[in-house]
Amino acid sequence: MNAPLRVPIEVPNAAVRDCTQSIAERNALMARASVLLAEQDAVLVAHYYTDADLQILADQTGGNVADSLEMARFGRDHRASTIVVSGVRFMGETAKILSPNKRVLMPNLDATCSLDLSCKPDAFASFCDDHPDRTVVVYANTSAAVKARADWVVTSGIALEIVQHLASRGGEKIIWAPDRFLGAYIQRMTGADMLIWHGSCVVHERFKAEGLKQLKKQWPEAVTLVHPESPPEVIDQADVVGSTAALINAVKSLDAPAFIVATERGIFHKMREAAPAKLLMEAPTAGEGATCESCARCPWMAMNGVRELISVLETGENEIHIDETVRRRAVIPLNRMLEFAKRRAMRVRGNA
User: Fold this and answer.
1) Which residues, 6+ apart, have CB-to-CB distance to 72 below 8 Å?
2) Strands laid side by side in the 82-86 sheet
């Protein structure tokens, strides 16, 4: 049995931020959110792809800006009794899996992820049941229920190492879900026997190889950075393929004046912070065969804003709840990855 056909995903229109907001209004909102975080004994963790003001606020209030797993670990280890997760729903669930005794809130519970939506728990469990001889490896961009069905949870920063480990350990056969492009990249790099689920990220799948090729010709001195959720013909043009954290580090450490970046454009805030003198360009989502439905902006990440943060802190709404049986099963493959990284002395970083 092959992996099921792709699930149709309804992509919302990206939220439009208020461009008429004055500096005084912005500062007042930031100050109000900061006060509420302290009053609610809450820590803000924000993903690299969220609005820059949320990232700034997280840094200014003792929170953290990171990928989803690091967000969850930071919240778990922080003294605060409430974790506010600015990102998409699977990130809030991951935080709750690692911090069952803490309150986990999100600015908008409708903020989800096309990878999560593409991998429904019942369909995925049935698929796994049809292949009982295979080890189940799932990307962090999945629901708690899908994680609960897995043997391993991985991020893009450690997926290659873990799959290589499994393939070399008696040639284990693998089920990979949900991102087909990341799965294909790992399969190509490791030679592992993998059945790959047919999910994709609505942002990364829109990057266009022909448009990128033309932009590279215009900027031959630029280094091309590509997240491995991108199509293979885009990955093939990369100078660096890596996780969100790896791409930020590349901008900081590489001696190049300019970078072409193929991932969600929210990451530019931390890249500019790390290397303010360097030129950053978005990889094209236009070109041959383009529809430009996402234009390097995740519509669900865009549902997060400072106003939504204030609202959830004032009302206590949008709390993440996970069935305890599911949570206990989901934490096992997560901890398995963390233990693997600890043994290899690796820092686990890097999903979308």
Assistant:
1) 45, 91, 94, 95, 97, 98, 99
2) 64-66, 42-47, 82-86, 103-105
Tens digit of pLDDT for each residue in 31-80? 999 999 999 999 999 999 999 999 999 999 999 999 988 999 999 999 99
Nearest-angstrom CA–CA distance, 210 and 276? 29
Sheet holding 194-196, edge to edge: 152-154, 135-139, 174-177, 194-196
With respect to CATH, is domain 23-112+301-321 assigned 3.40.50.10800? Answer: yes
Q: Which two tokens stand for residue 289?
A: 């065969």
CATH 2.30.30.280 fits 115-201+328-343, yes or no: no
**Among the four given CATH numbers 3.40.50.10800, 3.40.50.170, 3.40.50.720, 3.40.50.2300, the one describing domain 204-282:** 3.40.50.10800
- Specify the pLDDT at position 69: 85
